[in-house]
Every structure is written in C-alpha cells, then in structure tokens.
Amino acid sequence: MTLTTPITSPDEHAAPLDLLLTNSTRGIAGRMLPRGPLTRLGVSLAKQPRTLAGRGSLLARELGAIAAGKSGRVPAKSDKRFADPAWHANPLLKRTMQAYLAAADTADAVFTDADLDWRDSEKVRFALDNLIEGLAPTNNPLLSPLGWKALIDTGGLSAIRGVKAFARDMASHPRVPAMVDPDAFAVGETVATTKGAVVLQTRAFELIHYAPQTPAVHAVPLLVVPPVINKYYIVDIAPGRSMIEHFLQQGQQVFTISWRNPQARHRDWGFDTYGAAIIEALDAVQTIAGTDSAHLLATCSGGILAAMVAAHLADIGEGERIASLALAVTVLDQTNAGFAAAAMSDRAAQAAIRTSAAKGYLDGRTLAELFAWLRPTDLVWRYWVNNYVQGRSPAAFDVLFWNSDTTRMAAALHKDMVLLGTGNKLTTPGAVTMLGTPVDLSTVTADSYIVSGIADHISPWQACYRSAQMFGGKDNRFVLSTNGHIAALVNPPGNPRASFRAGRVDESSADEWFESSEKTSDSWWSDYTGWLADRSGPQIEAPHTLGGRDLPPLAPAPGTYVHHN
C-alpha cells in the first residue's frame, strides 16, 4: 500500500478493537447473515427493477461472451489468486475464472445500487465480501491447479494431509485455517529474545528492564504499554526486527509491561486494575532510572488505557510525570469507525457483556476468528488453499505466530471497553473515569506522537488522526505509515519499500493533513527515536546492572507471564 493518495470513505472500512469486542461474542453465522440489513437490501433493490434488470442483462451478455471465448476480462494486477498459468492457458479454467470475476463485479454493483445507510452497508459489505471470496474457484479443490499439481507430485498424500489439517483446525477455536504451526517458534529462544530481566512482578503484570546496548543512555526512560489482547512481544518480535532492540541501539532506557493472561478468577479486573498497574510500573521505572518522569509508548488497546492514565495523572496534578505520550494504531474516537461500529447496538453490547461475565473472560481465540474474517483473502482463503487444497504446512512467520498466541480479557475489562466504545465516551470529557477521576484527554499536555497504518483494517488512520486531535499538547506529531495494523508496527529501518508521512496535528481534517504532510522514505522508527531523543534529557553512563534498590532482577526476559496459556 502506497502513501501517494489518501484513503478516506464515510465508513472507513475498518473495525476498531474495542467495538470488535462486542461482535466477537456472536457466532459466525450471525455475523454472516445479518437478517435486518439483508431485508432492507432486498426492499431497496425491489424498488429498482429496471436497475436490477439492466445489471442482469449486462451479466448475461458477458457470460455469453465468456462462453464463446470472446471476453477480455482479466483479474486485477493486485489479485494474486489466479497467478498460476493454468487459469489463463486452460480454456475451462479461464472461462470459470472470467465468469466468477464478472459475477463478483455484478454483485458489487448491485450492492452499490442499493444505497444502504452506513450501518446496514457495513454489515452487508462484510457478509458480501466473505461470500464472494469464499466462492472463488481458486478455493475449490476440484478446480484448483495448485491442488491437482500437489496431488500428482505427492502421489495423493497432499489430500490426506489436507483433510487431517482441516479436521484439526475445525476441532477448536478459532476454526479458521492455521496461519502458522504452533511449534514454529519458541518464546525466549526465537522470538522475544532481547536481553533483560523482570524487575517487578505483580498479580497483573511483570515489568521487564532491558539491558542497555550503548555506553551512554538518555536520562529519561521509556515505558512500553502493550495491548491487552495478545502478548507483549510484538514489540520484540525478532533480532533485527525488534522495536525494543532498535530503541536500545539508539541509546534509550527501555522497559515494558508484560500482562498476565487472566483466568476466570480475575473476572473483576477492569479499567482501574489496569490503570493502577500502569502507574505502578511507571513508579518502578522512575525509581530505577532516578527521574521524575518517563515516556510512554502504548499500542492498540494498551493505548486506550495509557491515554486514560495520562488524563488521570493530569487531573490529580501529576501530569508532568508523562514526559511524552506515543500511541500506535490506537483509536480513541470511534465515530463511524467501520464494520464493528455498524454492528454495534445496546442489545448486542449487553449480550456480549453477559457472555464474558458468565465465563469470567473473553477468549482471545474468538476475537482472532473475527479478525481473520475481516480480511478473508489474506487470512482465511490463502491458508485454505495452502493447508487443505495443497496439503502443505503454512510458512513459519513470526508475526503470525504472535498473532495466534492469544490471551484472554478479564470480564470487567471487556465490559469497560465495550461500554466505552458503544458510547464513544472518550470524546466527551468526564463521560468515563479512571481510578475515580473523570477522563478529559484535552488536559493531557505532554507532547504526543501518534502512529497509524494506511491500510489498517482494525484502527482506521482517519480515526487515529481524530484521536490525536483530542490531546491538549502544543507539539503533537501524527505519523501515517505504510501497511496495516501490525506491519505498521513491525517496520524496521532499511526496508526500501517502506515510507511514512508525518506532520503536526492541528484543526485540519484527515485529508487536509494528508495533503500538507511530508513523505519520507524508510521506517518511522528512526523518526520516533529522534523525536524522543529531543525530549529525553542529557546522556548519562549506561547502568551496569538491571533493576534497582528494592527492585532486583527476578528472572531473565521475557519473564514467566508470557508463557502462561
């Protein structure tokens, strides 16, 4: 995805995390068959018989041309599903491909003709996209040339392996094709390998202090607050691609929180539990570094919590403890923020809350299932073909290994997140509280650095920009990176295809900001560490030991909580 033109639509076609927390408690059939919106789709189309007849006539004529071998229809250049030469050389496969593409385009056109409101449009679009993708002939083992070639090459073993893989994946959540083998990586050995030590362990988290990698370090430390779904090591994914490793190499003192994977007995952990945990971690970081303040870098749902904590500290007169606030792929303003917002209703919210309350938690595997169906081509059907049709094991990819290493969310936190999202409460000062104080993000005056991804299907970049406008700092910077939700984060320097746009946050719209922003090649990581260095005080001698007084090393990084399932 390039950064040459802005991507904006009224609905932004993405799904922010805290609203997905509601829809993930519903069965897949309920999400694929939204009865009310489908009824309204039918009523709208029934009022346009001439339009429907015209679409049908055009499709019939094209299908006739396809049958006669006179159609010039070809897949889009970005459509890699039909890359095998057999789809273009074999007359039957070519006609099948062309008929599918023609029918898919007609379905899209009919959907547009219906002109549904944004809420119904998002629900129907989700169902339609999955239907169209699922019916692609590339997914059919009887038609796929990749499947036939694998069958011949393996003497039929590929079919046996495919059936076994299908049975294994469907036996338990998330009931989508496996994107990576569960033993492809080992936490602490091949991922999450940066040297450090756990220097504080509480019921809710472990605090990891990383060993410096430069002779001198900046005086003001950095505390990373990871998301509460999945584990922390997306910021320490692998040597050469680790955000934490990069920060250390630039002379930063780095700490990170590693959240405990909650169980049913932790059902009462809510906003206040996690907010208090962040403050406790901040206390420890400041004690070890001997400073009055620290930088916060928080990602996704961790960013929501960190922003609320910053507002709480401002309210009690301790706002200066936050040297700067960086949020990555975090949405605080949920206005028209895509499919999940459309799927939201008070009834759905209460049903989701009751479901997690009964268990004591929201299972991260159900959320992973919904994430996959939001991008069916890349995250479902690609692996359907590879795993089942071709009978192959998925490639070892560390980010997908992390993605499958899900965690639970405590029922109280799930409830708090759902109610925050349904009411879009962070946009109204005082509508939600943190540790007994009203949250008003405009009182957060620390400089902020907000990162988003232009192709993010969870946190739309336009919503991230609106979120950046909610803070009260005078020197706030917004960065728009290439790629999507995770690839925007795991974005080490040196990638010739990477770029980002950056500029000050002001009163302009997202599109106006885009036009005035400056495009830079390479990763935003270097931009952030430079921005951070300007706010990190003088350089001092790097500490020779980890931890500090009353905070001794307890265990080597990545700690123990990261291994809890």
Specify the number of helices: 21
Helix content: 40-55%
How many beta strands in the DSSP annotation? 17
What structural category arises from helix and sheet content? Answer: alpha/beta
Segments where pLDDT lies below 50 for 5+ residues?
A: 5-16
Average pLDDT works out at 90
Distance between the termini: 35 Å
**Largest sheet report:** 11 strands, mixed
User: Oligomeric state of the chains?
Assistant: single chain
What is the strand arrangement across the widest sheet?
15-14-13-12-7-6-4-5-2-1-17
- Return Rg in Å: 25 Å
Q: Roughly what fraction of the amino acids lie in strands?
A: 5-15%
Taken from the alpha-carbon principal axes, the silhouette is globular
Description:
This protein is α/β, with parallel strands linked by helices and 565 residues long. 42% of the residues lie in helices and 13% in strands. It is built from 21 helices and 17 strands. The protein has helices spanning 17-23, 28-32, 35-46, 49-67, 86-89, 91-114, 118-134, 145-153, 157-170, 243-249, 271-289, 301-315, 339-342, 346-359, 364-374, 376-389, 398-404, 411-422, 461-468, 510-516, 524-533, and strands at residues 196-201, 205-210, 216-218, 222-225, 254-259, 294-299, 322-328, 361-362, 409-410, 433-434, 437-438, 448-453, 477-481, 499-504, 518-521, 539-541, 555-556. The strands form 4 sheets. It has an 11-stranded mixed β-sheet with strand order 15-14-13-12-7-6-4-5-2-1-17, sandwiched between helices. A two-stranded antiparallel sheet has the order 3-16. Helix 10 links the parallel strand 4 and strand 5. Helix 3 crosses helix 7. 47% of the residues are buried. The model is unreliable at 5-16 (pLDDT under 50).
